[in-house]
């Protein structure tokens, strides 16, 4: 996991890099505000540890810049600024935590791990993945093996249902009620048609085939054994 540390005090920066590296993280360390903002905007970090008082631009401006750009990377302020109004300002600007120097490294590490666990849970709730098939619930996007797949609203809802309950055979009656909000009518082929179209988009040209028909029972999305 990669962490960005923006800290202009050399001794503190070296201490943080060594401690976080020994804890298993890959650490990028910079001591200038402009460099910190550039890396935060152009690299992919699991978390940013950010000082406030920096040469170039300060930590407040770095945080504002990345939040304005829509980045939700967790940010932990690590600073000597102790007044309550500074803590409030940091949190209101979008920081996820605020720790005052001097600090115990064990507490810093515990806070970092807590933020990373929290972020992992949010990400898990926002995205579904089976094999190389990914569904992003927030952006309403689907891709397989990195290739974007365009779906209709109903196709997206059908795929979401199959992925949320992957490995489980879903009867047509359940699919009808969950996706079309209707009672199942054995005379209609709307579900079969939707499954066929979804297969064409999700499975054709890819291996393995994920959407399976279980005769007399329904459909299941799973990785074939």
For the structure shown, list the relevant keywords.
225 residues, 5-stranded parallel β-sheet, 20% strand, 8 helices, Arc Repressor Mutant, subunit A, Rossmann fold, 2 domains, 44% helix, alpha/beta, 4-stranded antiparallel β-sheet, elongated
Question: Can you put this structure into words, describing what you see?
Answer:
This protein has 225 residues and is of the alpha/beta class. The protein folds into 2 domains: 2-126, 3-Layer(aba) Sandwich (Rossmann fold); 131-221, Orthogonal Bundle (Arc Repressor Mutant, subunit A). The protein has helices at 10-22, 33-42, 59-68, 84-93, 105-126, 153-164, 172-179, 190-202, and strands at 2-6, 26-30, 47-50, 75-79, 97-100, 127-130, 133-136, 141-144, 147-149, 211-214, 218-221. The strands form 3 sheets. A 5-stranded parallel beta sheet has the order 2-1-3-4-5, sandwiched between helices. Helix 6 crosses helix 8. The radius of gyration is 24 Å and the shape is elongated.
Sheet with most strands: 5 strands, parallel
CATH class of the largest domain: Alpha Beta
Helix-strand pattern = EHEHEHEHEHEEEEHHHEE
- Mean of residue pLDDT values: 90
* Fourth CATH level, the homologous superfamily of the largest domain: Response regulator
Query: If you consult CATH, what is the topology of the largest domain?
Result: Rossmann fold
Give the overall form: elongated
Radius of gyration: 24 Å
The SS-based structural class is: alpha/beta
CATH architecture of the largest domain: 3-Layer(aba) Sandwich
Helix content: 40-55%
Q: What's the end-to-end separation, in Å?
A: 31 Å
Are there runs of 5+ residues with pLDDT below 50, and where?
Answer: none
Overall strand count? 11
Total number of domains: 2
Strand content: 15-25%
């Amino acid at each position: 996991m990669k962490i960005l540390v923006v800290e202009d005090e050399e001794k503190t920066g070296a201490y943080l890099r060594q401690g976080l590296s020994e804890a298993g993280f890959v650490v990028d360390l910079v001591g200038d505000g402009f460099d910190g903002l550039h890396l935060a905007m152009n690299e992919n970090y699991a978390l940013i540890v950010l000082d406030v008082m920096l040469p170039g631009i300060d930590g407040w401006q770095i945080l504002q810049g990345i939040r304005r750009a829509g980045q939700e990377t967790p940010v932990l302020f690590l600073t000597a600024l102790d007044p309550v109004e500074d803590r409030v300002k940091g949190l209101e600007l979008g920081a996820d935590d605020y720790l005052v120097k001097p600090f115990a490294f064990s507490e810093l590490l515990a806070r970092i791990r807590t933020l990373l666990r929290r972020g992992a849970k949010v990400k898990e709730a926002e995205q579904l993945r089976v094999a190389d098939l990914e569904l992003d619930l927030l952006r309403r996007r689907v891709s397989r093996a990195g290739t974007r797949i365009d779906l209709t609203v109903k196709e997206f809802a059908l795929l979401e249902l199959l992925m949320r309950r992957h490995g489980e055979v879903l009867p047509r009656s359940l699919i009808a009620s969950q996706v079309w909000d209707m009672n199942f009518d054995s005379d209609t082929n709307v579900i079969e048609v939707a499954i066929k179209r979804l297969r064409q988009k999700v499975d054709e040209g890819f291996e393995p085939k994920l959407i399976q028909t279980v005769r007399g029972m329904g459909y299941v999305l799973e990785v074939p054994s």
